[in-house]
Amino acid sequence: MAVQEHRLQFPLSEADARRLRAGDLVTLSGEIVITAGMPTHERLLRCLDGSEALPMPLHDASVMHLGSFSRESEGRFEVLYLNPTTSTRFNPFMPRLLRGFRWHAVGGKGGLDHASAEALQEVGGVYLSFLGGGCTLLSRAVQGVVEVGWSDMLTHYRLVRLRVEGLGPTTVGIDAQGRSLYDEEKASVQARRAAIVAQMDAARMGGS
Question: 24 CB contacts (<8 Å, ≥6 apart)?
Fold first, then answer.
């Protein structure tokens, strides 16, 4: 099936998420929530447990693992640039967060594990893979800060709701049908592993 390109409004709806397929390209406009913090994810779990209040509405949000450089001046919070951070760090948190908040789009770089892919399939969500090191391209899409949550945290750990226009393109790395390009690539590498090791052994023996 040919790769499809989509320009979609965010936060992404479940209906739009379920129409996407792994490998499709998606450009984002609208509102997303960003954070790069492990402590932030731990705090979100406490919100689900009821031990802490959410700093902003997060149900059905589109939450991206994007680091940022920000500044505060005269009470104004400004995001100067974005860069994706590695999502695999958040694997222990994501299945419960996805189910608890019903996020229909999450993203970052490096993908998520099988448990997270199952949760995405359950809630009707996708994982969007951002270009690693694409800071300049991604930062041009920032239109402004809508709200900031947990200002007591380091700036790149805070929850920041951003307004963006033309962010991307991103690649659907995991779709709402449960297909994961990351799992497929891992399986492909494992299938070739024996042959690669045999070739290395043969080369080593030939050189001895």
Answer: 3, 4, 5, 6, 171, 172, 175
What are the start-end ranges of the H helices in 1-146? 14-19, 38-49, 94-101, 114-123, 135-139
* Alpha carbon distance 44, 25 (integer Å): 29
End-to-end CA distance of the chain: 48
Whether the per-residue pLDDT at 1 is higher than 90: the answer is no
Question: What letter represents residue 180's amino acid?
Answer: S
pTM for the model stands at 0.89
Residue whose entry in the numeric block shows the structure tokens 């999450």: 106
**C-alpha closest to that of 60 among 125, 144, 143, 111:** 125
| Nearest to 70, CA basis, from 62, 60, 80 | 80
- The span from the CA of 130 to the CA of 59, in Å, is 22
Reported as a pLDDT band with limits 50, 70 and 90, residue 187 is confident
Question: How does pLDDT run across 127-147, given as a tens digit for each residue?
Answer: 999 988 888 889 999 999 999
Residue bearing tokens 């640039």 = 81
Structural domains of the chain, ranges and CATH numbers in brackets: 5-180 (3.20.130.10)
